[in-house]
Amino acid sequence: MKKEHIYPVVLTIAGFDGSGGAGIQADIKTISALGCYATSVLTALPVQNTCGVKAIHTIPTEIVQMQLQTIMEDIRPDAIKIGMVHSLELVRIIAEMLQEYPEIPVVFDPVMVATSGHRLIKEDTINEIVNTLFPLSTIITPNLDEAAVLTGAPIGSVDEMRLLGTKIMEKGCQHLLLKGGHLPTKELTSILFDQKGIIAEYTSEKIETNNRHGSGCTLSSAIAAYLAQGKKIPDAVNLAQQYVHEAIKEGADVAIGKGNGPLNHFFAPQQLLKRKAPL
């Protein structure tokens, strides 16, 4: 049979989560639920469950590089999502790859701080991320803990988010979605910036549940999925925020594991989207 169609493809570059709620598993679930085809490159193998991380096995950088090359030469993605990048060498390998494909939109979720508050990556790696990956990313999606690492100042209000988001943009970002879920407020506020300033502010009801494990991974993957479908940044962010809100809402009363449970990624799954293959 003649192959006349293709799927929108999203490549996720991220770590493993055996509990299924975050990391590369959450990425693949999200990308699939939104009608896109997921490919993946594994960067690390944490040993974890819903209660926390017990150990981390690092994937050798040459194996990560081979994974990237093997996927890119066969299935060219329409968007790329990057999760935790935990070493200087890995930052450089990913940056070299991105420089070869400047036309592909990149969503970078700069995971830097654990829920416990501990730094997950060293200062020199953070500096390399800012200097090399930020300018190559279409949009970065830090939470307030990560934003505090980037600015050197804690963020305790929406007004401070507006101010310090502008400072993060000065580091060479194209777009920034600053997530305010850690604020002690009844509403969740996220702010989207570009190089000219604030584009949009998104506000939604904060759902009382501990089933939020992987929400950051899910949001960044959802943005990538919508970009792969051809949406513009503001629309992709808006749709992704709606998807995450509903995924949290639909999974809020479900008991999976003894700790922080996952979202319901498949509350309304789409079929794989088809479009005409280029001639």
TrEMBL record:
Residues in coiled coil: none
Domain Pyridoxamine kinase/Phosphomethylpyrimidine kinase: 17-264
This protein's record includes keyword Phosphoprotein: no
UniProtKB keywords: Kinase, Transferase
Xref: SUPFAM superfamilies: Ribokinase-like
UniProt EC number: 2.7.1.49
Pathway: Cofactor biosynthesis; thiamine diphosphate biosynthesis
Tree of life domain: Bacteria
EC class (word): transferase
GO molecular function, one term: phosphomethylpyrimidine kinase activity
InterPro entries per UniProt: HMP/HMP-P_kinase_dom (IPR004399), PM/HMP-P_kinase-1 (IPR013749), Ribokinase-like (IPR029056)
UniProt signal peptide: none
UniProt xrefs under NCBIfam families: HMP-P_kinase (TIGR00097)
Protein name: hydroxymethylpyrimidine kinase
Organism: Flavobacterium cerinum
Taxon lineage: Bacteria, Pseudomonadati, Bacteroidota, Flavobacteriia, Flavobacteriales
Gene: thiD
